[in-house]
Design brief:
- The protein has 7 helices and 10 strands.
- The protein has 242 residues and is an alpha+beta fold.
- The strands form 2 sheets. It has a 5-stranded antiparallel β-sheet with strand order 2-1-5-4-3.
- The termini are far apart.
Length: 242
């Protein structure tokens, strides 16, 4: 067994994968050379429900991470490089829109979704006509990197996205969307001396007891319309209570 273990460790040391082993206190116990070369120690989720996720370590690459959490709290962190970041579709298909709404309805109908706060956000990114593809791709990447475990992003239409925020009430949901707005502004800044070339509008609503998705989505869209009306041409986030 010792020879097999030594062979495995030697193979991992020279692997093209990024490999790290963390103890129950989330302290790094072992890593290979590729892991050690990362610009910063990567984030861990430790979420058995979402063991795989996309990560951008800050060196221009995109990684696909797989976490294996043991009963004693030990975590095996393995990542492979994505050849190219997935692009946000300019216009989601009818099937993609239907799938997004079905996922939202299922999440809202879960017992956990009925017991705890559940908010949604309809986010629109545009530049007066439609958002540039690169800007949408940047927003998708920022969401995948900075949303909480369990949050879900789905495209609804050209430049419009649906965010599911389980466990988030008005303050938490608004803070999450504001953080995404700041991340997008940092990742896609305006040219020196110029103003921001896009508009970030978001309408948020929290599910009421027994409320169906259609009614919740209508309230979020009313909040989005209010955001557009209150700040024409500018970025605005509105949470609708009623």
């Amino acid at each position: 067994m010792s020879d097999t273990t030594d062979t495995l460790i030697a193979a991992l040391r020279g692997s093209d994968l990024w490999v790290g082993l963390f103890d129950a206190q989330d302290q790094l116990c072992w890593s290979n050379a590729r892991f050690d070369a990362l610009p910063a120690q990567p984030s861990r989720r430790r979420d058995p429900a979402q063991p795989r996720f996309r990560l951008e370590p800050g060196d221009g690459r995109a990684l696909w991470v797989s976490e294996t959490l043991q009963p004693d709290g030990t975590l095996l962190w393995v990542a492979a490089e994505l050849a190219s970041p997935p692009a946000a579709p300019t216009q989601p298909s009818a099937a993609e829109q239907r799938d997004a709404l079905q996922r939202a309805a299922a999440a809202l109908g879960e017992p956990r979704g009925r017991r705890q706060p559940f908010s949604i956000a309809v986010v629109e990114i545009g530049d007066g006509a439609q958002a540039q593809q690169g800007l949408l791709n940047t927003f998708v990447r920022q969401c995948r990197q900075h949303l909480r475990p369990g949050d879900t992003l789905s495209p609804l239409s050209d430049g419009e996205f649906l965010l599911l925020l389980p466990g988030a009430g008005p303050l938490a949901a608004t803070a999450i969307v504001e953080r995404l707005h700041r991340r997008l502004a940092d990742a896609a800044p305006a040219a020196p001396g110029a103003t921001t070339t896009y508009r970030f509008s978001a309408g948020l609503a929290q599910a009421k007891a027994g409320e169906e998705l259609e009614a919740l989505l209508q309230r979020a869209r009313r909040a989005l319309a209010s955001a557009r009306e209150r700040a024409p041409g500018l970025s605005r986030i509105v949470f609708l209570d009623a």
